[in-house]
Each structure stands twice: as structure tokens, then as C-alpha cells.
Amino acid sequence: MKKKIYILLGAVMAMSLALSACSDEQPFATISPDDEPHILDPTFPDRTNGQLATFANISRDANLTMDLTVTPAEYTTVTWYIDGEELPSGTDSDKELDIFLMAGTYNLRIVATTVAGKSTSREGLVLVNPLADDPQATTVGFERTVAPGERARLYGSNLANVKGLLIGSTPATDLSYVEDEGGNYIEYTIPDGLPDGTYRLVLQDTAGNEYGADPVTVTSNATVLSGGNRATSNASWTLTGINLDQVATLTIGGQTVSEFSEQTATSLTLTCPKLEDGDYQMTGTTKGGTSIQFLSGSTMATEIAVTISTERTLWQGHHYVSWDLPDGDPNKTFNLIPKDEFASMTPGTILKITYSIEPSAEYHQLQPATGWWTNLVDKIEFQEGGTYELELTQEMLDLIQEQDGFLCVGHGYYVDLVTVK
Question: I want to staple 347 with a disulfide (CB 3.0 to 4.6 A). Which of 6, 78, 139, 394 is the partner?
């Protein structure tokens, strides 16, 4: 009987110890430094449609702070990266972060590594929001890809107060402020000879204050930024980009074009080869014999898929839309198709709007409307990119003419392509 009591007491004590260990919220000790590392806290959100999700959303007058809980704590060191660049934690501990960031969007990556060389990581976006009166920049289309020695443009608000612009640590030249029907923006010249790469912009005011304005990509390559995804067989076709005066040939579906009706540094117009409707690959070479770069989605490549279609392209690019933005901001609406384009359309014409989402937006809605914000149809809600087809009626076409044209309004998405058939 005593033996059974001792056994029962031993089991109760073992269970008590196990429960005590499970309730301990501190990093637990391990028997060996060879244990796998884990980041227990904080929790990073999962990616959305393959894109990094927002981990932190702060104001630019607050530091980014974080306490990291890892295990095995005594055998693990932590390395912090912002936009791929290693940086100190700003504290006495490598497991605590306290740093200042200018306004902008940043990629934060944390790597925890044990003494045995085993590692794990977490990654997410950090949004640092400007204050209301700060000079601040936005992205309208493809103006964030620029060429050395060429003029560039930066959209935003409160930009009249900007007297200087740094590209990384290099000052831009010939800075001017413009305010017209296209919105408020700064025009500037990229310094000639600036090495290819990605640089964060910094806005400077007359008092010497500095404000973040997100990155630009500087490239000396001939690069097609828009117009390359779609064309009409045997019809005029215009591509836009940078350094396009360097282009010597384009090859689409095995047919090579070397004569262009118009060629400048920023645009290239040709007659599309006579091809059946379908998908083809396009490549190109420069006068120096190097490959042309094509922007496809968010990546650069030396070839791009081109859809040859009887549909007519009205507009192609990457224009963000949010009705939360203030009046006068070019991204409050999409209004880039002239009213005259609709004048010759007939009832039954299919208008196709291809869109992609902004992953950091809290919701995604698209609303076709007139220039007076009269809804043409009900708004649509979505969680991923797609194509919306709108069959135009005579009433819609009349409203577009009477009410100052066509708009796409809504929130949290980019208009990438608009066609008619």
C-alpha cells in the first residue's frame, strides 16, 4: 500500500513540474546549443498573394521598437536588416530594436542564429507615415525607374516647401516645383554617371529638415516600362520607358523589327508584326549589343510575354487609386483616358479594366464612374488582382460625355490595363 502511495506522489510531482514548465512565458532553457532556433514573439503576418504583409505601421515621429523572444535564448544571436542592409539594434541587446526611420515603406528582416550555425528568420513591411504638414511623396506610375543624366518626376503633397533632393547621398540637380492639372510634382535631373542601383530619396526644406520619400531605381539599361504586354497585329504600337533611344531591334514571335516610326529616350513606336491572336515572347537588343530589360509585374527580365489581340488598348501602366487621398492628389482617381475616346463607341462595347491589389491596403474596391463621380455600375470588392468587364450602354456613354469623362475610383488597387472590344 505504501509503495502505491509513493508511486502516486511521484506522478503528481512530475505532473506539477510539467505544468509549471508549460506556463513559463520566458525563453526556455535547452539541454544543448544544437536545438533548432525559434522566434516566439512577436508574430509576423503571413504573406498576401505572395507579397510581404505589413508588420508595423507607425508615425515618423516615433521610433520603431521591438522586444524579440527567441529560443534557445542563451545560444542565439539576432541580426536585423532594413532593405537588405544589416544595421545595429540601437540598444544594448541584440534582441531589442529601437531605431529611427524616415517616412517610407521598409522591408524588415530578422535572422536568429545559434552558435551551431542553425538559423530562422521573419520578414515583413514597416510603414512609417509622414506627419500631415510634411513634404511627402507618392508613386503614380513608373516614375520610380530613372536614368542617369535624364529628367525625372516625383509626385506628392506639400512639395512647394522642398528646396533640395538627395538620391541616396547624392544631390539631384535642376530641381523645380510644378503645379498643374496633372497634380503637384517635382522635376529633377539624375546626376550623370550615378551608378546603377536602388537609392532612397530624401526631401530637404529651407530649414534643413529632411523627410523620407521612398526609393528610386537608377538604371543605364534600355528598359521598357509599359506598353509591352499587349499589342494589335499589324497596327501601330508604342512602348514607353527609359534609354529607349538605345534600342536596335525587337523580336516578337520570331519576327524581328529594326525600323521604328518614332524613337526617343522615353518612347518607341513601331508596327506590330502580323501575327495571329495569341501569346508570344518578346526580346530586344541595343545598339551596343546588350539585351533590353522589360518590366513585367514588379520584376525586370530580358524577355516579356506579349498578348496579340483584336482588343484595343486605351491605357496601360500601373496607377494607384484611393478615394481616401486628398483632392488634387493624382492617385485619388484614375482619370487617364480622354473623354473623346468614348465618343465613337457604340452600345455593347466591352470595356475591360485589369487591376492588381496594394497588399498593405485594408480593403480593395473598384468603382467605375463619370467625371462627376456618378456611379456607372455598383462597386466591386476583391482580394486579388483580376479583370473587370463592363458592357457599355447608351446611357453610360451619354453620361460619360455629359459629365466630364470616365473615372475609376475606389481604394487599395492599381489600374494596369484598360482595353475595349
Answer: 394
